[in-house]
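Bench log. Compound arrived from synthesis this morning; before running ITC I wanted a structural hypothesis for how 3,4-dihydroxyphenylalanine sits in the protein. Inputs:
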Amino acid sequence: MANETIPHLTAFDGAALDAAFSALEQQARAAAAALDGEAAIEAFRLEWLGRKQGRLNDISSRWLKSAPAEAKKALGQRFNGLKTVVEELLDAATGAGPTDAALQAEALDITLPGTARLTGAEHPITRTMNEIVSVFAALGYSVGVGPEVETDYYNFESMNFPPGHPARDTQDTLVMAGQERRPQRDRLLLRTHTSPVQMRTMELQPPPVRIVIPGKVHRNDAQDATHSPIFHQVEGLCVDTNITFSDLKGTLDHAMKALFGSSVKTRFFPSFFPFTEPSADVQISCIFCGGKGCRKCKQSGWIELLGCGMVDPAVFAFAAQKQPAYDAKKISGFAFGMGVERIAMMKYGISEIGQFFAGDMRFLGQFV
Ligand code: DAH
């Protein structure tokens, strides 16, 4: 049917093409003007735009193909013009394009609240770690980091835990498999504390040193409310001439007041660490009851928070292998190490360490 409505084109000059296309356009306009109802509109669409038998398809397959090469461009332009006219006629007949429903779906109600996008936030552990670091940065300490996969030498031996020494048993260690053929000092493990970075720092720079080292550590500990196989520490090291235990006490007393409030008191208890002599555990007056005694401090009024001590001369001797200026006869120093989770749990009143690592947005969202 459609084929019969497309005349045979014999001439391809501009005038002949104009005549042919304007005749078709007039037919389209006349037909469109008479359209009444959806069925008629659909029939019009099929007649002109139908993929297989539509008139425009016929024009393209018959005229365009038989046209001499030099006329193809002119023909193509007129073809596109006609197609646009037909499409516009169809749009007009169907109610000018998009339906009301489509328009409504697209409409923008500027009175609605916007879409809230989650901007990330500092994890409470990162935040606490940064807070601790900035207390020491304000005292002139620099900040360093070290590897989480560490050698036996840095994690233990150079920190004065000799191979086979029972002090190693206090830090249940995750070791890399398949290292039996290496000398013990080169065997890799997940560092159990940030203390090895003390040695790495001293090997790289002569005294004086004032540095804090935040970082992640691992131990083969079963998880419970207060233990996790992954946790974080901030290590500190200060080495210079005439550094004394009073410097250590004054520094840590200031740091605890900066972190927990100026009314907090500190006390130092004898302890043992292989890399410090003497060693001490630092307790702070209970921040929950102010020292009167409560459930949190087990009625003692004190809470144990970190380890510290004067750097053991044996540790300086290891450092002196690379930096002879670490001569225990000329310099002295103190070190300390604190658990970040423990401090964060106290500051924010968190009772389960696992919450830090569970990735539950209901928990983490409280710290935004
Ligand atoms: N490295 C110790 C631990 O993980 C903590 C520590 C104690 C670090 C005393 C120190 C220190 O630097 O002097 O248990």
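What the model suggests: The longest strand covers residues 230-240. Residues 124-367 form a domain with the BirA Bifunctional Protein; domain 2 fold (CATH 3.30.930.10).
ITC booked for Thursday regardless.
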